[in-house]
Amino acid sequence: MGCRQNRFEESVLEDFEAATPFNRVEIYHAFDRFLELHQQYRLAASSNPDESFTAPGDRDYLDADGFINPEFSLPAEFIATHMPQLKENPFAKRMLDIFIATDSGQMTFIEFLDMVSTFSPKNSREKKTAHAFQIFDIDQDGLISREDMYVMLDMITDEPLNESVKKKVVDEVLIEVNKKDADGLNTEDFHYAISRSPDFAR
Questions:
Q1: Which residues cross the membrane (predicted)?
Q2: What CATH number is associated with residue 164?
């Protein structure tokens, strides 16, 4: 990594290695992806006549000492619509929401790294499942309720489904996990459902 023009401070890299399943090469690869989004955003912002669309500086991701600033951020909405893995995902906004700690609408590199490492093949099924539960628990009440599932159906279908169709689909989901008469899925139920889907851990 010594030949890189832009580097993290050693202590920051150590923290990233401790908090994620990524090694240093993978951490820098994640940063390169974030930097590519930054460059795309600069181009979009600089060509937008709307003064509220502020173009960031070319190297404003560096701190005063010339190291990469891990708190450097980009608009979450831009990430959702320009990151290839997210822009076609109906749950992109939900994914970003659960990793962003503030209401600023901005995602820091720290939060971006947390997101991409969580859903990487190197991470455990347990951590992926825990975050997936948060994504699908729309109202964040600790239960993926029937209402949450109705919202998800609206998110993944091009045409609105009528209530009877949505109820039938949700009933079938609950029957599949032996919760026919339940109001929804708690974390234990969800873990059981995911255990029946081996592709989820990949």
A1: none
A2: 1.10.238.10
Q: Is 197 found in the same domain as 139?
A: yes
10-residue block means of pLDDT along the chain (202 residues)?
A: 75 97 96 94 77 59 92 94 92 93 93 96 90 94 95 90 93 86 90 72 50
Contact call for residues 40 and 87 (beta carbons, < 8 A): no
Q: Which helix (H) or strand (E) holds 75?
A: strand 73-75
Q: Whole-angstrom Cα distance, residue 123 to residue 112?
A: 15
Strands (E), 8-152: 73-75, 106-108, 144-145
pTM of the model: 0.84
Whether 69 and 61 have beta carbons less than 8 Å apart is answered as yes
